[in-house]
Structures are given as C-alpha cells and as structure tokens.
Amino acid sequence: MMLITTSHRPTRRTRSFGHDLEKVFPNSTYLTRGKKTLQDLLMEAYERGYERLLIINVWKGNPLKMTFIKVSPNDWGYLGYLYLHGIKLQREIGFREIRPIREDMPFVITTAKRTGPDHVSFAQVFAELTNGEFVPRRDMSLQTIADKHNTDIIGVVERHPRGMAINFHRLDVDKERAVGPLISVKIWIMEDGRRWDYKEALLVKSKKRE
After folding, report:
1. Please, which residues bridge with residue 82 across strands?
2. What is the Cα–Cα distance from 91 to 97, expressed in whole angstroms?
3. Distance (Å, whole) CA 104 – CA 98
4. Do residues 69 and 42 make contact, with C-beta atoms less than 8 angstroms apart?
5. What pTM did the predictor assign?
6. Does domain 2-208 fall into CATH 3.10.20.880?
7. What is the rounded (10 degree) CA torsion for 60, 119, 166, 81?
8. CA 150, CA 148: separation in Å to the nearest integer?
9. Sign, CA torsion 92/94/98/101
10. Which part of the chain is the Brix domain (predicted)?
11. Percentage of residues in the chain having pLDDT higher than 70
12. Could you tell me whether strands 62-70 and 52-59 are parallel, antiparallel, or unpaired per DSSP bridges?
C-alpha cells in the first residue's frame, strides 16, 4: 500500500506514530529515514511496489504534518497534506503488540454515524491520499462494511472538539473498539486546490448563526 517514513531526526514519539500507521495500512512498511533524500525514498517505494509515500513531519517533538506523495517512475507528485492538532498512539489507547498485516487487503474509509458533510468530504479525501476506498456509512455497522469489502481494517472519520479526527479499527484485533492511532486534523489541503480549515469552518458556522 505505502512506504511510511519521517522527516530527518524524528523524535521517539514520531517514530512510534510511524510504526502505528504501519499496523493499520495493510501491506505497508515503516522505514527509518536516516540520510535518505526524497529521491531515495521514491525509488525505495517504487522498488517495493508501493503506490504511495507518506512522510511524517515533526514540530516541537510531535508529528505536525503528514505529506502524501504519489509514487510513479515518470509521474510522481505531491497529493496532499494533513496538518495535525495531535495524535494518540495505540499504546495510549490500550493496545500493544499489534502485528502489521503483510498481505494485500482493502483499506476502507468511512465516517462515524451522525457526522456532517465536512466529515464525508474528508473521508473521501483520505481515501484519495491513501489509495483506499471510501464507503458511505449509512446505517451499516463496521462489521457489515468489513464483511462486504473483505477486510479487517477500517479508518473512521469522526467528530473531534478541535476539528475532526480519523481513528482506525482492526476487527481481527478487537471487534468493538478502535485500536488507533487517533489522528486529530485541523487542516487538510489537496494539491488540486481543495482544502478544509477548522478555524475557517468555525467562522462560517458563526456567521450563519448571526
């Protein structure tokens, strides 16, 4: 699915975040960056057969930005960016020793129930960024969605006090609870010009109430 790495000189928390993502993106690999250039990373991803490269950038010791890049020998390019409020690691949610899935498996993205149009838009965008599949939630349970799409992994976009968040379910690990990591997103930007900003969205809502 994708090669996951960090900016140079990552913190321990950022490395842990990368390892957590390796466990919820099927058939993906976390790679220690070292001195590798962007070109080195693209070549590594291509040689491993991945279609995406994810780079986690750090600010003040914490993951700040997730940069998604399309991998292609002749047509690579930046796809989009997530700017983060914060994260909660799998171990902080109560899950340790989860094994990565080393096989091709659909990665499905949906929304929690009772979410709004902004959450649906972000779920669709996240599917584009990860090369996953967006599935409208409607009244289906996560287990029903998983069974229909023959997968154990579902990313769920949900409400968050400071914007929106995406959490991850591994139904082979726990049928009820999300395993994380929980990613709180304050801004997303796509290279084609689409974007969403938590503060801008709040301003629009406040004007509608006036």
Report:
1. 66, 188
2. 9
3. 17
4. yes
5. 0.94
6. no
7. -50
8. 6
9. negative
10. 1-196
11. 97
12. antiparallel
Secondary structure of the chain in the HEC alphabet? Answer: CEEEEECCCCCHHHHHHHHHHHCCCCCCEECCCCCCCHHHHHHHHHHCCCCEEEEEEEECCEEEEEEEEECCCCCCEEEEEEEEEEEECHHHHCCCCCCCCCCCCCCEEEECCCCCHHHHHHHHHHHHHHCCEECCCCCCCHHHHHHHHCCCEEEEEEEECCEEEEEEEECCCCCCCCCCCEEEEEEEEECCCCEEEHHHHHHHHHHHHC
**Dihedrals φ, ψ of 20, to 5°?**
-65, -40
- Bond prior to 181 in cis (omega within 30° of 0): yes
Residues 199 and 65: their CA atoms lie apart, in Å, by 17
Instruction: Provide the token pair at 128.
Output: 């584009």
Which residue(s) pair with 108 in the sheet? 133, 154
User: Quick one: residue 108, left, alpha or beta (phi over 0 = left, psi -120 to 50 = alpha)?
Assistant: beta
- Name the pLDDT band for 7 (thresholds 50, 70, 90): very high
- Confidence at 163, pLDDT banded by 50, 70, 90: confident
pLDDT 10s digits, 104-155: 999 999 999 989 999 999 999 999 999 999 999 999 999 999 999 999 999 9
Cβ neighbours, 10 Å, residue 208: 7
